[in-house]
Design goal:
The structure is a homodimer of 362-residue chains.
Chain A lengths: L4 H7 L7 H19 L6 E4 L2 H10 L8 E5 L4 H14 L2 E5 L2 H6 L2 H15 L4 E5 L13 H9 L6 E5 L10 H6 L2 E5 L11 E5 L1 H6 L35 H14 L4 H20 L4 E3 L9 E6 L11 H10 L5 E3 L4 E5 L6 H12 L1
Parallel strand pairs in A: 2-3, 2-4, 4-5, 5-6
Antiparallel strand pairs in A: 1-7, 6-7, 8-9, 9-11, 10-11
Helix pairs in contact in A: 2-10, 3-4, 11-13
């Protein structure tokens, strides 16, 4: 039996039969996600996707005209576009934190320091928000989120830190970063292998105090049938209305299955064993150039096509995606930078990595 | 095979295999919903729920401090709370359009005129938005949306009309109202009997011109991998990011099944045959008083408990919901006004209506 929000709505709050079942499903998922994020359940809101988790808390923060948003140059177009629209309406200034070239040119051992130096160079007295992904979706490098959060707390205005965690939850340990960020937004459908249409966001205590909800529905309210009700005091104020409850059971089960495969560190070892094999194969292939100067810290492996690619498809990443797809090998292309990106998860085998390299060599 | 947004994201836009399948699923649903709403597909955005459809277009409209929001006194607490938060941030004024008492005291033949008179009495030169449900969730009365829209167009500022269609789509014909409103927001999980977590909103041409998106993700963008991309010109600018695509197939199929049961008018006749039977049974029962003075125009039948109820449960609607639930009869209670509400759909039988009346008589 999978019950549903609709049933709840029709029954009202006093029924004894179904409400506890629904509450148990959402509570089970909320607890699991909060534990992964290293935060109390009161700091965890369920969302439809990463964008909802990133963007919704932003709109209700106390902005002032002239505040600056500092956005990493590897952020996803969705959150960047949302920040620009927020800036347009609130009279904010958008600045860019350059990390892409650092990722491509800096050995991993030096990357954290280089990112922090870039941050220091870009922060101004007016900086009010920094936007930086935990695991960059294009280069595949890990950003030093905890150190960035610490650094921001030393600034006079203590800028908020928004972290896009689309690629990190389920692939690397996230607890320290999620607990340190102000907004740490993720989805269940990528590295957690859960269903699409369900994610979450971990919010800091200060965001819970300072941010009002913007997309408001009955789930935002403490008393859902009273318009005069106040918001939930906890992160549920950023939840909205009817959603697909069975997905909660699905994602909670996905997280359990993932956990049964070993600790986050043990799983990351399996992921990086495969991504290292792929990185090395790419590095050794004429016409292919991995973006990162060393084997990746997680499972994202991006690479460029150089002029002398042997398979004769030229430098068109689109043509390569199609050609590989015809062979049952599914990777994607990216625009910024123009490259191809393959992923290795705990399900990836050495044979599959070998097949990809062989196909790329033509 | 049910494909998914994630697959699309991983494959990128150039793959030939899955993208057309996904596009076909969403296009099938968008076409079906647009046809029901009597609008072109470019005016139809898919949303997670009614609240998303009501609230998201509001935030990006060009508000000016002092603009007035006129909100019906039977609106759902979610949208009312959202309007108050919008008013707080934008410096708007909230006024109330009283229709609840009209519903309870006015014969159906006179209700449209009474609502329009109330509207005229409440509109001011500063009114910028009117919020009114098509089928009121608490009284069960139908509001004259087309006439209201026409009336608003005669005013100097031509206020926008936001219609909460949570109860109307799937229970009454909506095309004229949906095409006349500026924001006509619905869900698939109530009267359409579709899955929860999927709804939509029909938007007017002027809202498409005037409103910027607020909850922004890759689906809002014309080129999803470019942060510099402009919004979709059509209603897709109000769509966000990854959602549960299989729900699209589910709702499209639900709509087909509903359509196979007859035209909207034919189905409404079946619905109102049952709601009339229930209304008459309530009317004839000591201690029970239907809210509406005549048999309902659709399938929502709300009623009060008066002091001399025969079953001895007093006037506690909560106790009645629980008692009926124990008998397998599922109705709900409402706070404003304090009442019980039963629903009849095309699946409701005369026997079920009789059982409810008998149970209420104790």
């Amino acid at each position: 039996m999978v019950a549903s929000w609709r049933t709840i709505q029709e029954l009202g709050p006093f029924t004894t039969a179904v409400w506890p079942f629904i509450e148990a499903q959402t509570a089970r998922l909320r607890s699991a996600l909060a534990a992964l994020c290293g935060v109390g359940t009161h700091r965890l809101a369920l969302t439809e996707n990463v964008s909802s988790g990133c963007v919704l808390p932003l709109w209700g923060l106390p902005w002032h005209s002239g505040d600056e948003l500092l956005i990493g140059d590897c952020e996803h177009p969705g959150v960047v576009a949302a920040c620009h629209e927020l800036a347009r309406r609130e009279g904010l200034v958008v600045a860019t934190l350059p990390v892409q070239q650092l990722c491509c040119n800096t050995p991993q051992a030096d990357l954290d320091g280089a990112v922090l130096a870039a941050l220091d160079a870009c922060l101004t007295p007016r900086t009010r928000l920094v936007v930086l992904s935990h695991l960059l979706w294009n280069t595949g490098a890990i950003m030093p989120i905890v150190a960035v959060a610490d650094r921001l707390q030393t600034r006079p205005r203590q800028p908020w830190l928004l972290v896009d965690a689309a690629q990190s939850l389920g692939s690397i340990a996230v607890a320290a970063a999620a607990a340190a960020a102000d907004i740490y937004a993720f989805t269940g459908h990528k590295w957690c292998c859960g269903p699409e249409g369900l994610g979450g966001v971990a919010l800091s205590e200060r965001v819970l105090e300072q941010a009002q909800p913007t997309l408001i529905g009955w789930r935002s309210l403490r008393q859902e049938t009273l318009a005069s009700s106040s918001w939930h005091r906890d992160a549920r104020r950023f939840e909205v209305a009817t959603s697909c409850v069975p997905l909660c059971s699905g994602l909670a089960t996905s997280l359990e299955l993932l956990s049964a495969e070993g600790s986050a560190d043990a799983r990351l070892q399996r992921i990086t064993a495969m991504s290292a094999q792929l990185w090395e194969g790419l590095q050794a292939s004429p016409g292919l150039q991995p973006l990162l100067p060393q084997a990746p810290p997680a499972g994202l492996v991006s690479f460029r096509l150089t002029a002398d690619d042997p398979a004769g498809l030229g430098s068109s990443t689109a043509a390569w995606v199609q050609r590989l797809g015809e062979q049952g090998i599914w990777i994607r292309r990216l625009d910024q930078p123009d490259c191809l990106r393959a992923c290795t998860h705990i399900t990836t085998s050495a044979d599959e990595v070998g097949r990809l390299i062989a196909a790329l060599r033509g």
